[in-house]
Design brief:
Helices cover 31% and strands 16% of the residues. The strands form two sheets. It has a six-stranded mixed sheet. A five-stranded mixed sheet has the order 2-1-5-3-4, covered by helices on one side. Helix 3 crosses helix 5 and helix 5 packs across helix 7.
Length: 347
């Protein structure tokens, strides 16, 4: 006997795959490397995220509140709280230095110390103010100084660079000049020689945003040692003058010369006390180079090879020139050097 025909309602329809979801390119993540106390931390955030989102993630991961965070972005500057809604996609570098103390470090400093038990054998004497300690001077030195020392952690022996920067910060002459002119610098850091070297010049120092960050060329080009201390200290005098004047005009050179003289007078230890047998001294480094740069000073940077010193002029008579005259002079000297090189090769 034939079975009854089945109703079409009971026949299951074939499975149909759902259409693929469209991928929104705006959901792609941005990867950033945050260096804190020498340790790298990787953060991945949506492409539309801002600095505010990054500081919130840092708080969640490292337990550092945004109010205590400072972010040093290469080629961008130092970002301080309160942070604005700057898109992360606009940052020129995805490697950021976090300048902040952890809550545990803050707690260890602020924790009360346990006083040692008093010895009953000796009677207590009333405390009297010290006649030798200059409290005003101590307060000024804590205010007018370099607030943060920042060696480059990816270069060899960053701790040695930190000691070099500390020596500059604690130099008696530098401290005296900074107190007199009320200079306060946010970050004193070293510069990577490879990033500031051309075939014509080598930059010795940079001052960003009139004292927000000062960079100094501490290391030799071969990364096998450190440059002469007095050369670097003189560079620092030049960069401190940029806290007041941006252009290399007469006022700038007069101030630079005054700071250099104040540093020499104020340094009663004659150049600072070496940490260990002239540890940072390079006898072959005198702040000069075999291939002299015709520009000397350019764009607020202290360039190795220049001759200008102050408003009274230098070895090549550039002290009273403005920036346009310096650039014209540099172009003229480069043409002369090129001509001499071509003559030597043809002979």
């Amino acid at each position: 006997m034939a079975s009854p025909p089945q109703s079409s309602e009971n026949v299951p329809s074939p499975a149909v795959d759902p259409p693929p979801e469209e991928v929104d390119s705006s959901d792609e993540a941005i990867s950033l490397t945050i260096s804190h106390h020498g340790a790298p931390h990787i953060f991945r955030l949506p492409a539309a995220s801002t600095i505010l989102d990054l500081t919130a993630d840092i708080q969640t991961t490292l337990h550092i509140p945004p109010a205590s965070q400072k972010l040093l972005v290469p080629k961008f500057g130092l970002l301080k709280p309160p942070f604005g809604p700057t898109p992360l996609s606009t940052l020129p570098s995805k490697k950021i230095q976090l300048l902040a103390s952890t809550p545990s470090e803050i707690a260890s400093v602020s924790a009360p110390r346990i006083a040692s038990p008093l010895r009953s054998s000796s009677p207590l004497k009333a405390a009297t103010p010290s006649k030798r300690h200059d409290w005003r001077k101590a307060q000024d030195e804590a205010t007018y100084t370099f607030q943060t020392l920042l060696p480059l952690p990816h270069l060899p022996d960053p701790e040695r660079s930190r000691r070099y920067l500390a020596r500059l910060r604690d130099d008696a002459g530098i401290k005296a000049a900074m107190r007199k002119h009320k200079f306060s610098v946010g970050v004193l850091t070293e510069m990577n020689p490879a990033e500031h070297t051309t075939h014509e010049s080598r930059t010795l120092g940079l001052n960003r945003n009139r004292g927000e960050v000062i960079e100094l060329r501490l290391r030799t080009d071969a990364y096998d040692g450190y440059r002469d201390y007095k050369v670097i200290r003189k560079t620092l005098c030049h960069e401190l003058a940029h806290n007041v004047f941006g252009d290399h005009d007469r006022n700038f050179w007069d101030l630079t010369g005054a700071i250099e003289k104040e540093v020499e007078r104020g340094d009663w230890r004659n150049g600072g006390k070496a940490l260990s047998n002239e540890e940072f001294y390079n006898p072959d480094d005198r702040g000069e180079d075999g291939h002299v740069d015709g520009g000397g000073w350019s764009g607020g940077e202290f360039v190795l090879g220049g001759g200008g010193k102050n408003g009274s002029g230098g070895a090549d008579g550039r002290g009273g020139m403005n920036r346009r005259e310096l650039m014209a002079k540099a172009a003229e000297e480069r043409i002369k050097r090129q001509a001499r090189t071509e003559e030597g090769s043809s002979s």
